[in-house]
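[Q] Does anyone have a clean structure-token version of this?
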Amino acid sequence: MMNTARRPERRTELLAAGAASVTVVLWASAFVSIRSAGAAYSPGALALGRLLAGALTLGLICLVRREGVPPRSAWRGIAVSGVLWFGFYMVALNWGEQEVDAGTAALVVNIGPLLIALLGARFLGDRLPPRLLAGMAVSFAGAVTVGLSMSGGGGSSLLGVVLCLLAAVAYAGGVVAQKPALGRASALQVTTFGCLVGAVMCLPFAGQLVADASDAPVTATLNMVYLGVFPTALAFTTWAYALARTTAGRMGATTYAVPSLVVLMSWLALGEVPGVLTLVGGALCLAGVAVSRSRTGARTAESAPRVEEAEAPR
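[A] Here you go.
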């Protein structure tokens, strides 16, 4: 009987893990596309174009699925995550990565998952098991190693460091705000309206977007559209689906797989052969994710996500 009762829970865990994997792969691919689009579009214009493409895609899916407007109780989390994560984060990160080398960006931006774990413990009641903390520490070291190995001796500016730091804080705040909303609305609703809020926030860059689009090569524009359809519309939805079924800290730790995938994709798509130090850093990222998502023999570690689901208001 116990094994039969565990089957639906196991299926949910597998679906959530699959959704998280889709998110990580698509977010990693975004770094390759940003290199092309970012050369032709300014940070604000790129963020707006990406969000408009994402909002249009999500809106069409909502119409097909007949998803309604989220309930009023979900709007606070949707609005906060839309402003912080979909809006401010994208602009700050696009701008910050133009001002600092990859090593500095990796060091600063990758404190985001650590902040998610801490904020989740403070505001959502998430637990911080030793395995999660140890895995995040290993992955953070790997992310910094990858960044430093690929920095190419670039420079850094105080403005760039501050922008990357603000992006990390906005990312963490947006994720923690989004988690309660997922107990009241569907992943598709939360993502769609969060993206719309972010797009509205970026409307002041509309003139810049039009000007940049008139001069940008077709490949850059196509990359911007790709960023909106796949790393935004699809990946943020699969992220929300997985986040609704686990803790914010564990989801944040999962994103540490992104640097290792970026190395692989840059190798395959751009012909950038990774060095030994880069490979070591990528291996550390993956090892840390494996540790952070592993489960102890105790059942208490497994019960945390299920307790959250049971207590989350609907």
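[Q] Thanks! Anything notable?
[A] Confidence is low (pLDDT under 50) at residues 297-314.
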